[in-house]
């Protein structure tokens, strides 16, 4: 299992606590220090069944004074590039189980789902 996290994020700390409490083995990826590539983001989005704008932190985009592309299929690649170049915009934590089950672990139910899949 792998968890993409920002140690300053309370949701990330809570999710990591839940993983520890469940006794699952996991690796940590501090995605701000080791940003995902476009290919990795495409893979995660495919497993999540989401579009890139669904995992974007738009409030952070405003803080960074970034202009967001329209949420449209023809702008999907631009969104993925934007997330890869600005990992702070990626919703967190993202947790992937060994079987490929992937969640944005912002709530206990999502974290429980990925733990059950491990």
From TrEMBL:
Superkingdom: Bacteria
Cited InterPro entries: Arsenate_reductase-like, Thioredoxin-like_sf
Family, as annotated: Belongs to the ArsC family.
Protein name: Arsenate reductase
The organism of origin for this protein: Nocardioides aromaticivorans
């Amino acid at each position: 299992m792998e968890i993409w996290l920002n140690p300053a994020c309370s949701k990330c700390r809570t999710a990591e606590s839940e993983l520890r409490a469940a006794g699952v083995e996991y690796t940590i990826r501090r995605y701000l220090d080791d940003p995902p590539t476009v290919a990795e983001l495409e893979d995660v989005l495919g497993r999540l069944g989401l579009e890139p704008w669904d995992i974007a932190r738009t409030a952070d985009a405003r803080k960074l004074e970034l202009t967001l592309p329209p949420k449209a299929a023809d702008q999907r690649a631009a969104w993925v590039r934007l997330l890869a170049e600005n990992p702070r915009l990626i919703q967190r934590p993202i947790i992937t189980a060994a079987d490929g089950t992937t969640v944005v672990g912002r709530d206990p139910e999502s974290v429980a789902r990925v733990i059950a899949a491990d």
